[in-house]
C-alpha cells in the first residue's frame, strides 16, 4: 500500500515537473531544434527565397562541395574569423584577469572602480560599434588624434586591410567587464590558507601567482575559453556596423564568417548555401569545444581533486 502511494506521488511530482518545464521544452522544439533540422535539410537543397518560396531542388552535397572547393570567399571569411579568435580570445582572457587582480584589492572605494570597469560591457553592441567606428576614423577619430599629438601618424584602421582586424581585437577589449567579474569571483573563492602556506614556504608574489592563483583559476579560465571561442566565432554585429556598406571591408579584410553567411542568406537569398555555411560553422565550433573539453584533463585543476 505504501509502495503504491509512493509511486502515485512520484507520478504526480513528475507530472508537475514536466508541466512547469513545458514552456522551455516547447520553445526548444519549435524555436531551436525545429529550425536547426529545417536548416540541415535546406543545406542539401538549392533554394533561392527571393525567386520562389516553394521551389526546393535537392542537390545533395553540392553546396558543401562548392563552398569547400570553389568558393574563395568562404576560406577568406574563415581565415578572418580564425585570426580574430586566435588573438582576441587569449588577449581578452589575459586583460580580464589583470583587471580582476587589480580590482581584488581591499581598498576604500574598490566597488566604485569595479562598477566603472564593468559598465562598458552593458552597452549594446550596435552603440559600441558606432562609438568605435568614430574612434577609428582616420581623419578625426580620437585614437589618431591622440597619436598625432605624439608625432605619430595613425593608420587608416578599418580602411586598411592590415589594421582592420587588429582594430576589432582592440575594440573587443571594451567588453571584458563581464569576464572580469567571472575572474573576480574566481579569485575571491581561492582559500586564503593556500597563500599563507606559500608565504611560510618562502614563495614570492610571482610564485604565489603562478603556483596558487593560476591553478585555482583554471576552471574559470576553462569556462571563459569555451565561451570566448563560441562567441568570437559568431561575431556579427560589430563587423556588420563597422564594415563599410557591410560588404566586408577593403579587400574583404572584414569579411567574417557570420557576415558572409548573412550575405548569402539575406542579401543574395541563397538559403541552401547559407544553411550549409551555418552547419560547417556548427561543426567547427563543436570540434574546437570538444577539443578543449578533452584537453581540460591535462590542465584544469579542481580543488580536492587528486592528480
Quick overview:
By secondary structure, the protein is mainly alpha-helical. It has helices spanning 2-42, 62-69, 72-102, 110-118, 125-135, 142-149, 164-172, 177-188, 192-200, 205-233, 237-242, 257-267, 271-299; strands at residues 45-46, 57-58.
Please tell me about this protein's structure.
This protein has 307 residues and is mainly alpha-helical. The chain has 2 domains: 1-35; 72-299, MetI-like (MetI-like fold). Helix content is 69%, strand content 1%. It has helices at 2-42, 62-69, 72-102, 110-118, 125-135, 142-149, 164-172, 177-188, 192-200, 205-233, 237-242, 257-267, 271-299, and strands spanning 45-46, 57-58. It has a two-stranded antiparallel sheet. It starts with a helix and ends in an 8-residue tail after the last helix. The mean pLDDT is 89.
Structural class: mainly alpha
Q: Compute the separation of the termini in Å.
A: 49 Å
Number of helices: 13
Strand portion, in percent? under 5%
Q: Superfamily at the CATH H level of the largest domain?
A: MetI-like
Spatial strand sequence of the major β-sheet: 1-2
Primary descriptors:
307 residues; mainly alpha; MetI-like fold; 2 domains; two-stranded antiparallel ribbon; 13 helices; 69% helix; flat
Topology:
Elements: H1 2-42, E1 45-46, E2 57-58, H2 62-69, H3 72-102, H4 110-118, H5 125-135, H6 142-149, H7 164-172, H8 177-188, H9 192-200, H10 205-233, H11 237-242, H12 257-267, H13 271-299
Antiparallel strand pairs: 1-2
Amino acid at each position: 500500500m505504501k509502495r503504491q502511494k509512493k509511486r502515485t506521488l512520484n507520478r504526480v511530482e513528475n507530472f508537475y515537473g514536466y508541466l512547469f518545464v513545458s514552456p522551455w521544452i516547447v520553445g526548444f522544439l519549435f524555436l531551436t531544434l525545429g529550425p536547426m533540422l529545417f536548416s540541415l535539410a535546406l543545406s542539401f537543397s538549392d533554394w533561392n527565397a527571393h525567386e520562389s518560396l516553394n521551389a526546393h531542388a535537392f542537390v545533395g552535397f553540392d553546396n558543401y562541395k562548392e563552398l569547400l572547393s570553389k568558393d574563395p570567399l568562404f576560406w577568406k571569411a574563415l581565415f578572418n574569423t580564425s585570426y580574430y579568435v586566435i588573438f582576441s580570445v587569449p588577449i581578452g582572457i589575459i586583460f580580464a584577469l589583470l583587471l580582476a587582480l587589480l580590482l581584488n584589492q581591499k581598498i576604500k572605494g574598490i566597488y566604485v572602480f569595479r562598477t566603472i570597469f564593468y559598465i562598458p560591457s552593458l552597452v549594446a553592441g550596435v552603440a559600441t560599434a558606432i562609438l568605435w567606428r568614430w574612434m577609428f576614423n582616420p581623419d578625426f577619430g580620437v585614437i589618431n588624434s591622440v597619436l598625432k599629438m605624439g608625432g605619430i601618424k595613425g593608420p587608416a584602421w578599418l580602411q586598411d586591410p592590415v589594421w582592420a582586424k587588429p582594430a576589432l581585437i582592440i575594440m573587443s577589449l571594451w567588453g571584458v567587464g563581464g569576464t572580469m567579474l567571472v575572474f573576480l569571483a574566481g579569485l575571491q573563492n581561492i582559500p586564503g590558507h593556500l597563500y599563507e602556506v606559500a608565504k611560510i614556504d618562502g614563495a614570492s608574489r610571482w610564485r604565489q601567482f603562478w603556483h596558487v592563483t593560476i591553478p585555482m583559476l583554471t576552471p574559470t579560465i576553462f569556462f571563459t575559453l569555451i565561451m570566448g571561442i563560441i562567441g568570437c566565432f559568431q561575431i556579427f554585429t560589430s563587423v556588420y556596423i563597422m564594415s563599410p556598406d557591410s560588404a566586408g571591408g577593403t579587400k574583404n579584410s572584414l569579411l567574417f564568417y557570420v557576415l558572409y553567411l548573412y550575405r548569402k542568406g539575406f542579401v543574395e537569398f541563397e538559403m541552401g548555401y547559407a544553411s550549409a555555411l551555418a552547419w560547417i560553422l556548427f561543426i567547427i565550433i563543436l570540434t574546437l569545444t570538444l577539443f578543449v573539453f578533452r584537453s581540460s584533463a591535462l590542465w584544469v585543476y579542481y580543488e580536492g581533486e587528486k592528480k
